[in-house]
Queue: 4 jobs
Job 1
Amino acid sequence: MRISTNTIYQNGTSRLMDLQNDLSKLNEQISSGKRVRSPADDPVAAARILELTNAQNMNSIYTSTRNVAKTSLETYETNMTSITNVILDAQSSLVSAGNGSYNDQQRANIASELQGRLDSLIGLVNTKDAQGNYMYSGHQTGTVPFVLNTVTGDIDFQGDTEKRALQVDVQRQMPVTYSGTELFQANGNDLFGTLQDIISLLKTPITDATTQANFSNGLADTMTKVQGVLDQVLNVRADLGSKLNELDTLDVTGSDMELQYTASISKLQDLDYTEALSDLAKRSTILEAAQKSYVQTSQLSLFQFI
Amino acid sequence: MSNILNIGKSALNAAQIGIATTGHNIANASTPGYTRQVIVQSASQAQNFGYGFVGQGTDITAINRVYNDTLAKQLLNTTSTSSASSAYYTSINEINSLLSDSNAGLSPVMTKFFSAVSAAAANPTDVATRQTVLSSANSLINRFSAVNERLNDIRKSINTQVEASVNTINSYATQISQLNLVIDKAMSTTGNPPNDLMDQRDLLMSKLSEQVKTTVVKQSNGNYDVFIGNGMPLVVGDDTYPIYAQASSTAPDRIEIAYGDRSAPKIIDSATLAGGTLGGILTFRNETLDTVQNQIGQLAVTLATQFNDMQQNGYDLNGTAGVALFNVPQPVATSSANNVDKTKQASASFVPGQSQQITSSDYTLKYTGGQYNIIRNSDKTVTSTATLPITVDGIEFNVNTSTPAEGDEYMIRPTQGAAGKITLAFDDVEKLALAERVDANGNVIAFKGAGDNGNGLRLAKLQDTANVRMLGSNGNRSYAQAFALMVSAVGTKTNEMMVTSKADASALEGATTAMQAESGVNIDEEAANLLRYQQAYQAAGKMMQIASQLFDVLLQLGQ
């Protein structure tokens, strides 16, 4: 076949250019460590990487939400431990108040002891969390939950019974707040009212059988109610524990998934260095050979011999 | 005796012309478009002397170029195919790199925005967390806007390329028509082909084919008549019929191709202008650029509208009903410049609560036979109605005042460029509506308090809800999925164009090699020819020397 001199040069240079292109692409891959540098390199993998990255991000959003949930639940846990202790203290005061040998003065002492307990309980239930929100006032986070009504003398609940839920996983919204009224004033067991009542009973001198009976009945009633509240608090603490457990389990699943996503993304995106480097060596050899043969063939000309 | 000298002279002459032609070939070995020339040599008419015919030497009857019409036609075709796919590939590659750029991609900003919303939903009363939502919303719309701006740049550069291409095509057409005239004259006066002029004309044809696909019809007098598109004549003899770069009748910022009457050329359907750089970039604009820019607009509009709708389902930190966070641009409606009744205008607006219906398509509103036809351009789905307004795909279409003239049409672009026009409606962090206002049954309820995050959870949930409509696929997709699908579609097309342009380039190389094999100059061959003609010249000289010696013999006879 006839071949034109132009074709010889053109074919030679275009082969060299193709080889150089391949090499430069390989170089880019090797220096970035990524096999998929743009969607065109592998469209299916590129879309999959985007989806996996998004899933990974969602996963890390849930992880950080779980941390918020944990902080919240742990704050309640600490707070309720203190509340439990104060209630236990109050219970022992109540037990000693039942001592029939106590005189009015001794009962008055217990009354002021109980008043102290009541005050610290109110202090505890009116605590704010790290964000400055009142813990027990439901959604009314800026409102003090329990306030002494100066007219009636009662301790009124100012919050609501709403609970804030957090999205701790794809399908799981976990309530992470507790309403004060449900804990301390539910089922007729009004912790504060009961304590107020017994304090005023303790302050009332026992003069006859009626006052004696009133006191005994009142004390028994208080013991039952305070125990009721304590049970409630302990139930909630059990609930807290199980929620924290659940969060731990979700965390384990979350970090497993995180590992899995990272592995899948890396598998799709990252370069196989062994393969790439051997490819690089192969292509460099080919380019070198092509350059040599180009120089040699282009030197051939009949004119050299005329 | 003089007979012998004449034979020698003709041989010398032929060898000289042979050497000149060979020299010309060598000189033009690398001239673009040059085809090698050969001399056509034949024996002169012999003379009858009674005892037989005595040869009278040699004649050069013609100098021809070696040219094969079929191969040339093949070369023109592969040239325009290859130019088209390479122009398409170059352009789509810009979008491909834009989408893969981690600084310009939309995925990270969408994720950041929704992370901030999730964090705010977890701490509804924390002002700093709310501030993060607003600042990430700001970077979200800025990124959308930046991507849109890059796409607009590509659009502008296509306009420039179209204009340049049109000028080039017209200039080549003029040059071809002038060469038609000159070649025709040379042929008719001398009867010989002006080879180098013909090479020049073929080179122009090849350059023209780089710009647009052409059809050449060779006339009996050797003239080239050139047609483009659906048989539109560009060159007929020594006349040219230019094409024009003209703004689209419905979109002034879109340069289209017009043809016809010089005073009022009509815009032609760009799909008919296949091939060449021009065909390549026009196809890229129709197929990829419009689609991508519309899809990004659709994603921006859908996300912003759905976030706004959800905002309105909530109470803000102060218990006031939520308001829209994003200002979302309404669809753009333009009247066709060809409309009879210029006073009428179309309008279109997104219907609240129907954002899941919004598509990435453009729409044509056309009034024919007493009916308003809403045509979804992407798949040509038509919805007809006798009265307006009508809601199609979450968009209410309308025409102001009375009926338009028959055949008038309007272009409605709901999403193109929308990604660049979204702004933030407020910068007061307290206005984020994280508290629940509409309950699960759709009833408006009272404000529950600042600690309520019910609506915040729903706002965060938007990110993995299938909210974006994908035409041609059943079921909606989440924002991230919609974006991933778009990236994958661009990637697939880029990959396809890379493969196609490579294949087309090697087809072009094949056609060039075939053409060159026949018409190209081979220096070694010319060297051999040079030797041949040199020897012929030397032999002819020797013959004349012998003739002269014979003459001397005769002259010596008288001494």
Job 2
Amino acid sequence: MSARPLRVVGRPVPRVDGLEKVTGRARYVTDLVLPGMAHAKVLRSPYAHARVRRVDVARAGARPGVFAALSSADLTWCEPYFGPAFRDRPVLAIDVARHEGEPVAAVAAVDEATAEEALELIAVDYEPLPWAITLEEALGPGAPLVHTGEPLSGHFADLATLRPQPGTNVCHRFHFERGDAVTALAGADLVVEDTYRFPPVQHYALEPHAVLAAWDETGALTLWASTQNPYSVRVELAKMFGVPLARIRVIVPHLGGGFGSKTYAKLEPLAAALARAAGRPVRLAASVPEAFQTVRRCAARVTTRVGFRRDGTLVAVECAADYDVGAYADIGPRVVQKATYTATGPYRVPHVRLDARAVYTNTTPGGAFRGFGVPQLAWALESLFDVAAGRLDRDPVDLRRQNFLAHGEEFAPGDTPIDGKLEESLGRAAEAIGWTRAGAADRGRGVAAMLKASLAPSVSEAIVRLHTDGSVSVLASAVEMGQGTRTVLAQIAAEVLSLPLARVTVVQPDTAVTPYDQTTSSSRSTAMTGRAVQLAAEDVRDQLLRVVAEALGVAARDLALEDGAVVAPARRLTYTEVLVLRFGMSGGELIGRGVIAPGRTAAPLGGSTPFWEMAVGAAEVSVDEETGAVRIERYVSVADVGRAINPLLLEGQDEGGVVQGLGHTLLEEMLYQDGHLLNGTLLVYRVPRADDAPPELECHFVENADGSGPFGAKGAGEGSLIPVSPAVANALARLTGVRLRDLPLTPERVWRALRARGR
Amino acid sequence: MLRPFTLHRPDTADEACALLARLGEDAAPYAGGTELLLLMKLGWLRPRHLVDVKRIRELGDLTGGPRLAIGATVTHRALERSALVRVHCPLVASVARHVANVRVRNVGTVGGNLAFADPHSDLATLFLTLDATVALVSPRGRRELPLADFVRGPWETARASDELLALVRLTPWPAGTAAAYVKFGVHERPTLGVAVALQLDGAGPGGARSSGRSVRVADARVAIGCVSPRPTRAPAAEARLEGVAIAELEDVAGAAAESAAATVDPADDLYGSADYKREMVAVFVRRALRIAAARARGAEPAARFPHAVVA
Amino acid sequence: MQINVAVNDRAHVLEVAPHALLLDVLRDVLDLKGAKRSCDTQVCGACTVLVDGLAVSACTYLAVEADGRSVLTVEGLADGESLDPLQRAFLDAGAVQCGFCTSGMLLTARALLRENPAPTREDVLHYLRGSLCRCTGYRKIVEAVLAAAETAR
């Protein structure tokens, strides 16, 4: 790479899809209409757990205007189960409904009103069964079993060794150890231990799940889906319908938010089945209450023990975590496994013993949600760190700094060494929050740090096409869900090919057109898909240089790209001219390819993380002691990102992450009573509003170009959310002396804790 | 998505009532629709006829006099911006400004709010301190009853199915009354709402401060909403406040607040546990009284409480 | 029922059922997809349009109510290719991420600025109480509205 300063990477350029979004022209799945399109509605179980004795769709199917009415009995022409970890989730309930809201039957009709009326014509005989809603109910003796029988394993290598516990609701267990934690804890000068609870919470992407499915006359399937991983959906459908991957096309328009809720198949299998049965395109759009019944964050109960030496050195961490993954595993087992692997956080810990279980309950399936299991564990560990600091009479910032993993230090044998400078993030956060300055008497400050691995191994491929007019298409399947990936990928290509951003177009993800990308999640799109795009653009660059070098008889290394041209000592050839040279005529294109596929390694989870996501959060809070209402007055997030490809978009991401974290910290909790979800609508499920955001919110970035992604970039977007709850709880504890262990810190919970403490 | 219905648009109250009488339970009066259409979408109500009352001219009237008459189809926004209301019942305008969100205020009506008797209604709570009466018209004639008798319980009123809520009448407080409304809660609907109004005795033309004599509470009104099946006054608390000098109000506020809290009948629900709600009633009655006392002295307290709105 | 409604300054004569919601008529009959359905309960604001300058939840507003009125949707904000200062401000501030809340935010802000050309931060927060966003954390949205107000003055 030349040492020329970057022109477009690192600049806060406006997002490439901004104009269509502010003018209402951006298209999301429910904006799409196909000729003859039918509208689907789903009949869902009103019970948390029930035998489904009979589903009679005959009257619904006979109603004029109804093109298809399906129950599981009708799905004889496809594999009825799907799921990325276990293939445990039926398209439509088979003999048993395992959660309130589980799809039991579905119709496709000429319009929504007809579809709704048709649902009322479906007769279902339910026989309610005992249910298990909480972890305690699911793990207790004689607990009702959510699943009986052996589900098939899904399509991921890292979960090929799924370890369910037969005869129980435990669908996966993960164990990790290093050294001898039991002995180390016994010998530690200080052991702090407690149990922390993280509630089930809802993503609430403004756009609920939506799919438009259409089979063509050749038996090929096309879907427009609001999904974060079109390739995963494609695999699922191929297996389900026995159709080759090449004949399934998944196209992804804009997503109205994702946050993990749209990873892995959700409604796509049902939409495809309906389209097949209806013989016409079918659009299936969930309502927000249906989204509450489709996926959520895995709740958790975490018991952590941390041992310290008197001088503050961390010696051991023992963690036992139970994650509630709901009625179907979804990606829950990976959430559990991957998060538990980093349960020790960003610290050096010689002795470690980690045990985690993924537990089925009769509730909405738990899946991926920004943070991927780490918020639940950081809630415990970072809270305990402050408890320990108090007992050791140490400053919490200082105690963390003392134990941080250093740049280049090993996290676990075979895995990528730590590729960032945690103490730099901590220092900047402490500075920005004014840690050492005396604070107002009615305010408290707290900090928390996090470390998270990204998905490994994974594959991202990209293609860059340089056209005869010098414009470029970038083909990559990273999904735009607001985070700005389309813009970042364009910036990377524009930088490598020395083009104005306006000359670069990022094509929408389409499995028939844009090559394989594992997933848009795990903070990986800039580092992985971006790197693939960079390689593809460099491939094009190399071709340009080769053509000119050969034509001019010079060495490629004496050439450079500048403003859409190849520059030689005495000549300047525009890309258009280079293509004419190459093809001897006007026509043709240069195609570059990039592949990032680090492959399996000896790291404990089977792949070495492409980067470590690390961040620190610092909160300053006030509390109205009479009501228990906590207010975050100031919040500082510092993320170590290597290189901010687009600082404006990154800042927006992290501001959003902090406020989303504020949600589960102070406001959000899915509440169940007698097996029913009480607050599955926005009328009673409380997400942060504009006036909840901290009046002072700063997001900073540490950029040492030390990542393996393009231009030294790493990943970001989850690190801003993870520290929020422990930072706030730590601040509250420092202010009031009260330590809370159950989220969210609602006014009532805080009030009770303050009363228990006494005045 | 709504189920089909027939929309009727009578021009007079008589026509509207005749329709309601004829159609019975199959019909619902419809104005702004912010409650009605929501309940229809949720499937809790399925009227096959909607009787749109917005063309009935007099239902849109807002008139002054010894009593303020607010027609049923007056929107929250109109209430907020009405010069008449701002002059005679300024707190009503302030409270209207904070109902739900701007879109609901633009379209939702006072009549709809009262007729649905949502237990979390701000206006119903406040109106109890203003001697509110509601006028109901039907083919059988017209009757007017106190709001306290009109609202019977959660989502339950004294309105017969062939009756139309025509207007609500308020008796503005005398000039110099110090009042406050505070609502508190995390959710879309508040956990509690407290209205206090202190009519003052001995205040000069410029308010309590300008008078040389000791200013006392001549009449106190305290209403609490959202925590009981319907909004209620707290007579024991009011009695505790009567005759108290403004200068001493702080000392009495606590006891009055405790007394008010003892009168409410909260249930454990999403909005809070019963004991928490009861305690919060005490907290916010006390705070509302302090705010009113400050206003009585001509000051506007800067107090802001998280998750609370002060009007 | 027949209604006469001006949408983004264009007159329309439409035949709508009494139970038709304004949001569906705008999206499905007039092909104006900018207003979105999200919560469907008047809480989130994604469906916001302006009727005679007032913000309404189109998801809970009968189309027949728009008879004789003028409706402004996000598609009507720009004047040809010339963006409204609010649209410009949202782009410049980075206040757009997934975009699903954006049209609602823009129209709500437009109504605010027409009513109050010099809002304080408190005024903006009050007005946006009913407009949810899950992506941005709101800070840039509030900055954009204040910046647009500044520009317009």
Job 3
Amino acid sequence: MSENDSSNEVENNFYPLIIALLNFSVLLLLAMENMSNAVDLWDFIFVGAGVYFSMKFIRLIRAAHEFHETRVSVQTRTSFPTEGIYASIRNPVGAACIYMNIAYICFTRSFVLVPIVPIFIALWYIFAAYEEKVLLQRFGDEYREYMRATSMFRGGGFDQQRLASSGYDMY
Amino acid sequence: MTLEPFFMGPKTVMLLQGDIGTDISNFLHLLLDPLLLALQDEGLRRTIFSTVIWSCLIICGLVFVVYELPTVLTLISGSQTQSVAKKKRITTDGRAEAATASANRHQLSLDKSQKEREKREAAVKQTGVTVGAKLVKDRELLRLSVKIKNASNSHINMVVVDLNLPSGIDAEVGSFRMQRLGTINAGEIKTADFILRPMGGDPADIGGYVEFLGASYEVSKIPLPVPEMEGLYSE
């Protein structure tokens, strides 16, 4: 599949958008209602962590959308990217949104979000697992080999990457 | 305390003889006191928090919207509906539809693999690198020698020999399944030796590949040929 053909694919990956709308509209409403007004040392630490996770969200989203395939549904995708952010993470959009969920907890500093956020994290996980299942069916061993060398949401410094690489990190 | 033995200038000696700790403390007080004083105001802290938090949330939301906007535009313009309609016209029965989709996916995968294989073979031919493998029985062990000849006009880098061993054949203790040979210059031959322990497996099933970085920085992967057997099957 040439790059030209790949770029001609229809951008029809609506699921991340729908899940993100659902996820963040609920979290935003809860955050507006329950955001803590405390301004102590722990609050500084939590807000700092929230800023860090927000930056991670932006970095991952930007890196994922460098590839046209991110916006193409797995059902119609004719290739899958293995470079850039995809060289270490298979689902950067899911990872970004999970980090943003954690950022919301840090910013809100309220226990109200603690039982809600795992539900959305599970939703992102289910979506990522579904995408991988479809890609495995479509691309078979090629995708299985790619899965061996990468992780679902967190990249870098994993044993599996070291073991699966050729020793010169050429994959 | 005298600093004469250190041969320092008189000004430096004067500076060090004074209480340097107090000076630093005074300097830091001047620098940080206004900041700490301002931060003691709870209202200001709350404003800073609120600004930081809502800025982050708004920026993150905008980033997501900007990157996902093309998808939303596609959804609004409805350009993806055509392909769906076309698909539905071709298949009427549900089972046939699933079978066709599966066959299409399989064909797509096959075509892709075939193209990839052809591309790799062409790239390997271009490199001018040849690989030979020889298997010699050494008492109860097997010695596999993989010979790589660089017949091209330029050197190849990061040469790796990686074995795929069948069940019943394992690498001997102290020997590895992968070896790095580094750089092979033009016209040079390098050999990687592997010591294997047969435990009922068929040596003809030993596979693997040689991977290297060519002169054009293209990664090439040459599959290991079936090894020549020496001293095997003769008993």
Job 4
Amino acid sequence: MDLYEYQGKQLFARFGIPVSDGLVATTPEEARAAAEQLSDPVMVKAQVLVGGRGKAGGIKYAATPDDAEQHARAILGMDIRGHVVRRLWIERASDIEREYYLSITFDRGAKRPLLMLTTAGGIEIEQVAEETPEKLARLHVDPLTGLLPFHARRLCFAAGIPSDEVKQVTAIIERAYEAFVETDAMLVEINPLIVTPDGIVRALDSKYTVDDNALFRHPDIAEMRDTSAANEQEQLAREKGVNFVKLENAGWEPDGGEPKPAHWFDGSRDIGTLANGAGLAMSTIDVVADAGRASGHGPANFLDVGGGANAESIATAIGVLLEDPNVRVVLFNVFGGITRGDEVAQGILTALERLGTDMPIVVRLDGTNAEEGRAMLAAAAPPNVHVEATMLGAAERAVALAGGEA
Amino acid sequence: MAIIVTEQTRLVVQGITGREGSFHALRNRDYGTQLVAGVTPGKGGQDVDGVPVFDTVADAVRERGANTSMVFVPPRFAADAIYEAVDAGCETVICITEGIPAHEMLRIYNYIRPRGVTMLGPNCPGALSPGIANVGIIPAQVFAQGRIGLVSRSGTLTYQIGKELADLGLGNSTIVGIGGDPIVGSSFIDVLERFEVDPETDLVVMVGEIGGDEEEKAGDYIAGWMTKPVVAYIAGFQAPPGKTMGHAGAIISGSSGTAAGKKAALEARGIPVGESPTAAARLAAERVA
């Protein structure tokens, strides 16, 4: 779960990392009131879960409450790389002498937390790593001993932090590591970590990601989730406990993001897909995209009904798929292990009855109790259900149906 | 001989009195696995369909000679259960539980490695050596006995490929699910090393997916050290960056961890990658024919 800048800073403050004073605003009037309360020039900062806010005009300096209100009016509702701005962070403006960078990442490859510190802050860290790797101090920590004081010192000296700042920076490193472990973070990044003209070191921005699997022990952080930031269908899926990702053609360069990969499906996303298990669900969207590339009909979503799916969860999942107005065909790809084919068939029949849809549904059932499931579908014989024997065959059938073939 | 789960496996199931735990434990026993004990704290002295239940893993090891534990307890108790199994002397721990916090796994990984413990999972379907033993939730009826090793980060996708292989008349020595979490007990390389020295394995199919760089590292290992052929399949070409695709570990971060990147890295090392599960199975068939 990614946190907004201000939420990350709230956690920083909790762990004793110095941050600037600020307030959240959701309207221009609130922005004005916040600026009045802070009684100094402020920064008006768009809160979005995507990088590149500054370049997109989402961060503005306001000398007066009037300015703050005006900037807020311009920034609220702005679309930054597909993310609509609904919240602002109004923060006391800082004088900046120098900018550093500090991060703690969860290094999957090394199976250890990785600390990175550089005095070349304020810019993309990938650029520093590529162009001047000698300026980027890196250090892995053994998770069994945790961060030791010498780790923080070594990192500071390796990065070339001026000696009169080392004490402040080591304290921030130690507190950031504590926050990283205590909150089950996958990423804690401070970019920039600023030094003011009077020598105070402070976090000016935050990037903070918390492990979804650990939210059960951090109810306060779980509550920070902004459900309105997700697409409506994804929000519904989350409420229903369905593992769902909407697939979209937008979000690549030049609108922002990475360059579009050569294999990316670019046609009409009119086939709703469902599978059991994450790997099979991913494989399903790949196979549908390949089958439909020529005719331009492809996957609308990723949906994993999980292991042990039953009739009820299957019916719920179909309900989520049908919320997408572009979907013209639904493809079921279920390989039973814990999940039983007869339960899946029952779920399909229940959903058809409950939702009263005549949308074509292509079903491929294999594994545990698949024969029973196919027999149930054959007996009920709903006219819009098409049973296919293989995954490839099912994908091809779904593409053909989306293209208007009977 | 097979790997990880064999004739020598003496299984204790932690969480055996739970609904899922008892169902799969007994299914594993019915398949032929030596299920020697179960553990549920406070239920020592009971039995589950004739399988003795103990309060601690240490008791199960001492009384019944258990050497392999299958962890079937809820996520918030699973880390403790894994430490308990290791502390009791189990050589192999297979964790089916999904949803263990990544930081817990980070500590567990660094704890078990120097102790030489073999761990599969968490969030894995277990391991099956057809005709010999099954520990976990893999539906054995899908797979035939044979000489192809199969290692995968995903459960149902593994079943799909096992089925495709069976349709081509091919079977498996052992099917190993390493799990879909960001940190798992065994990497592809750990399992490939065992297949390399297993006299009953002729070829390995490696099933990867987006996220991390374990497939790329495995590519280096295969190219540098393996004498047996390996073919691969990678899922997630259509996955958008920054979204977790079901498995906690299946996420593209920026431009790293993409399926295209993994495919290119493997192919550059001479490892063929199938475009679909069907194609991967055909590649395997061509190489054993």
